[in-house]
Design goal:
489 residues; alpha+beta; Immunoglobulin-like; Glutaredoxin; seven-stranded mixed sheet; 15 strands
Length: 489
Amino acid sequence: MFRKENVVLLIIFNLALFSNTLANANNSRLTIHGSLSPNAPDIGTLTIEFYNHYFFDLTGKNCILKKIIVNGRRFDYSSPKFNNTAFIKIKIDYSKYSNYYQLSKEIFVASPGDNIDLKIDSTDFIFTGKDSERYFFSNKIAKIQPILSQPFDGMSEEMMDYVYNAYNTAFLKRMEILHQLSNRLPARVTKQIEFDLKCKENYEYNRCINKMLLTLNNDTIEKVIKPSFFKYSSHFLEGLNDSTLITNSPYYYDFVFKMLRNINMMFHPTQPGDIYRTNFSYIFSSILSDYDGQTKYALLVCALTDFIVKDSTDQYFDAALKEIPSNNYCYNILHNIKTKFGRGATVPNYALKDTSNQTFYIEKLKGKVIILDFWFTGCTGCKQLANAMKRVHEVFDSSKDVIFVSISVDKDINEWRKSVLSGVYASKSIDLYTNGMAEEHPLIKYYNFRGFPQLMLIGKDGRIFYSEPPIPSRPQTTNRFIEIVRSAI
């Protein structure tokens, strides 16, 4: 399950690719020496996730977990051996320490031989040591976001100029940070980062336009959004024609796909309220006919992991897999997604605990349509989902064919039971618990969820019917969700 809206920080993906350090027997690991600052809580443990390539969040593979005990407020970590590039997440239990929630989601790029000192304070990770500029750069850039203080009411040309300038200003501020470091980086590394930052700006702007296209009426799109979009379109592609930089930039593919989707929505308009407003077959055909090689493969991954295709059959996955060589990592990603999330995929039957502390297996519900959600205490989105699901409960409350199941990833069983009783996170459902293992539970690790809440439908045959249905947060998506459930009965 891959949500581009929640894109993680990869703008310096290729710093390590251009590293002058050659891995050898004694210099092919990442080493971290960590400590807690006086104002940091005594976290006890943390987990470092080690990955081999940047599409890791889709696959759930190539991840090596290591739980680190923080002893005397200090800890050490040594990675497995690797060549060229690796990625790490430094995860702290944010169900207990919510101030580390965003930091635990960030990605840091590593090269063989990196020897990093990491200080954890109450709100931040502070990197020093050999090649720490890359880690510091990634952390600092992540905090620069476009400032959009005005509401999108009464869309006009002036408002569209304001939106564009907000994203361009963020880009220029990021470039200022890069220039502060450029004298310490090889010229080709600086060039790659500049390219990625430009792609990041374009991606963010196109994502904002995409949100407008999903909600505004066709007249406003035609008179305001479309002229503004093409007014700035030449800026999107300016300087983004170096094939080497394109190949090495994951943000380029994200940006191009989002732009293709926006163009599709503007020239093939539907009515506002349609949950996708997109002709996916048109985008898919465009990728196949207009792009070649790795760019085509990566765009197919972007397209097929975007939520707009969750409503389709497996035909697009099968067609894409025929286009991509089987030894290419994009092939492995799509094959893995189809296997785990495609319609008809097997749902793992791992043990869970119910509110009576009895072992429960999802398999025992075979024969019913299961509306399954995942949540944790303190999750605002989880509360919103529970509230949105009330209308769905009303429709299927008396149905013998539909059952609601809520799985919590809370670590503390008493906290979970208290939250269940509150009715804030789930209601009228079978409430299950991941046995205190939280995100380390094999079911959660299997799906490699990157955030919560999560929602999926399991068919009567016990297999995936819909891996990421529309969240029933407004009338149109609620009606669509209900239609999908009825089609599964």
